[in-house]
Please model this.
Amino acid sequence: MEDVTRGAIVTQGKTKIAYAVQENLNLLIIQSKDDITKNDDPSATRQMASKAKYSTATTSIVFELLKQAGIPVAYHGQLSETEFLAERCNMIPLEVVIRRYAVGSYLKRYPNFEKKKGEVPHRFHSLIFELFLKTTGGKILSMEGEVRGETPEDLENGRPIDDPFICNPGESVWDLRHPKIPGWEEKSNLKCQVFRSEILPKDVAVEKIEEIARKVFLVLEGAWAQLGFRLVDFKIELGINQKGELLVADVIDNDSWRLRTNDWKELSKQLFRDNFDMNEIADKYSLVAGLVGRFTVPEQAIVLWRGSDSDKFPELPEITGVAKVEITKSGHKAPGACMSILEKVLASYPQGGVILSLVGMSNGLGPTLAARTTMPVIAVALSSKERPHDVWSSLETPSSVPLLTTLSPKNAVLAALNILSQKNPIAYMHRQYAVEGLDQ
Model:
């Protein structure tokens, strides 16, 4: 990490302070605070010992994982227990929310998804994407900080309605709704609109924001699932750097999501919203900061093993942690050499992989490999279109030969990635994003 000198305060929020970097005006030092907030109510703010440390640790590890996944982030690196370095961004005044389960304010707007007490919340097969306009004291600000309007007062608490829900993000004029009232109720309509062009730069599409947000969630969902936890939902913020690039900015920490154990016990800021004991909340923040340190991208491989030079290798996407190993050796003609090569593969990738046996005509390679390794082996009957009976050498195998078979090289690659995605959160992101894209 480069040496930097803290300059003047650029901006200060509820939970962090941004300082200029004297050596580079395009960078900021972000320092977390020990404050924890809720319900857009300043009077509810509390101090929590070591929260700044937990927040910085969580944010830093999360952003390092996102960088590995190829997601554009403002984060550069951690400087201290409570500080990290990031690109200076013109922040987009939107809270970008992704939901896997129907909980929280979503149920207030869509009470038809409410489940009985003790039942598992409704799970969305495809992630729900939502936008909320960031406001403070009801003031609607453009990216340049100009006041574009105000939201009305909330009759229940007498305060302006902050962070209204954008019910039509794909339109050029956004209609703002109460974030906690069903859209079919008249009082949900704030009778307040804002032009999208006042909030987003002209070259930033809502669709691009949605794509990035979905991929961020999927990486983190995969990482938490490996550890046995459920990422229920999250909110993130994006900004534009000095080059005009759209980046995931701000922080992603235990304030940013709802995170639950496999048996649905809460670990995140929701505990503070629900008025749990501060010591218990601090323990959970400490736990989460420690757990993210176990996020990992294993070194695995997809082995493309063909019987001869005439058999064609399929294309394989580049995914962090998934190496491509190409081997040409016949199982019929050189079984001993194949076993030696297999041992080298197993020694090189102790965290596992998948072998694709790409063979035309009679497949002696696939069954031989499948009998000698716990790595999944998928046979691809390359000549099955011209010679349909060739597939039987991959299907009729002896006992203790767990060979999987497909006719499509592309499907074999996808199946291999599905298997690896159980341990690799970046592979999970790629596959789950494609799977959910089928619904759109």
Summary: The first helix runs from residue 51 to 68. Residues 108 and 327 are 56 Å apart (CA to CA). Residues 300-423 form a domain with the Rossmann fold fold (CATH 3.40.50.1970). The chain has three domains: 6-92+203-294, 95-199, 300-423.
